[in-house]
Fold each of these.
Amino acid sequence: MALSVQSVTGWVASNYKRFLRSFLPRGAAWNKNPDSVIDQFLSALAEELARIDARSYVLRDESDPRLASELLLDHERDLGLPNECTELGVTIQERRAAAYTQTIALGKQTKAYFIEIAAAFGYTITITEYTPFWSGIGGSGDPAGDQQVLFYWTVNIDSTVDPVLFLSGASESGDSLQKLAGYNAIGCLIQKYKPAHTIVNSTISGPDFSIAFDDSFDSIPSDALTSFSGAFSGYPFSSAFDVLIGGAFSKDAFDSNFVIPL
């Protein structure tokens, strides 16, 4: 989530100097010439007051995790970050997004709440809920699910998202110049905050997730219920294509299209 620092500023040194001069007594003993000792003393005081004033506005911005730099570590410590949903090798922009997500994670059972969690990482999701086929309510052509479908819902993640770019003033040394991130964090957070009696499925759509090979091996390991996101990330092949999360593929060898078990 892009957010810019507001341009509101306080008094500068010249404002404070005029303010301090207004407190001086009248009379010839109080030499107010620019090269006088008193004027130089007031200039020094004004510079420090202006510095403190400017820092107060920085503190205002630092109180927002989306803008924090100097206090980001303090936000993370207060919010219990990094946690089990924190990805490795995250940029400072991703750390800010994670801190903001943790700040707003008050816990709700609405679609809007989970959509807001994904939006904090820059992703657009939709949520599909299911209804059993009830006599007297269902009609011809409606899905014929049983009562258990009440406890299932699907998160549809659109992978068409702007990458996290290295930006002056928003990034730091060591951050990637360009990175697509947040898939695993979104899935983990939704699993963490979902109603405990429900089961979440997830789907990912977009050009990076096809059933054939692409340059990044962006295939989606899955178990019977949940599709997880991400590429193979440099992990070596194993006999069953085991990856870091999501489990192994059901076949030890290639099939025609890397079909994910449903």
Amino acid sequence: MGLSNNKTIISDGKLLFIPSASGDAGSIQKYAVTMSGAFVSESILATANTTASFWYLRTPGRHSTKIFYQNTASSAVEPTGSTLNLLNFNQQSFDSTGSVVRVVLQPGMTGSAIVKQTAVSMRIHPGVKDRYTISSSGDNLFIDSVYTGVPPADDISFTYMTGSGFSYNVIQSGSLNTTSRANQLSGSATVRISLQEGAPDRLDTAMPDSRSFMNVVDGFFGVSVTEALTGSNISMHGGIPLDIGFPLPNPAYIKTVGGFDILMDNANAHDDTKFRIFKDTGIAGISPGTEILTLDNDGNLSVAGTISNVSGSVDGGSF
């Protein structure tokens, strides 16, 4: 029997928000997969015109998830045909028995980049996000099932991963890869609020689960500096909840005392960063969204429409 109501507790310096029904009988699967040696080349993971590498997961309810790797040209062959009853699905397909996740890899990706791309692709997949909590850190991919019960014997397999450059390590807790759900009372809403060690005037707030969010109704998020005329305060606002003559809904806006800078590639580690603006989409690059402005790594500006001023306009293109 799980909790009948939501609950808040403090444990080990963490503020934990426990959703109702947590602590119910049964067990959950927990995995940590290491990809420290993984990389992309013509002979590893997503080789052109060759069956792509893949691995799979299975829940106690026998729902199977295939994760396969594809190159940017989509020339690797998706693996199909198996007694697992999931490999005949294509790309981002899913139903009650199986899901297929396609992970597109850029040439030259390292183990940590592959891990991050794998985590992102799994988290946004509608057939996966309701069955697993996915996170990553460095070369490690962490997978927690949200379902209780005893998993099948072949609950996770890397048999179909090829290439000596790929290495993995499955960390198993408890019998049959499970751990008691009673020990996982924090559910998917763990928040850590603590004073920064050695700096008691600094407060650290962390929300480990990427699905967590913060929402302010009719308010705003702001950052103030002690010297507002030397530095610059900044705030982020939702659209004004009044009809002031603009096309509705009113746009959100950012307000500062001074200017506003965007610092891309602050670690100076990439040479292909871009600033882009899309419309008609919730995720960049996903149909039916349209890219209407791009500022590339060399400062070239591309627009879908025209650049206009009081004296005329310039046709859309690159400048």
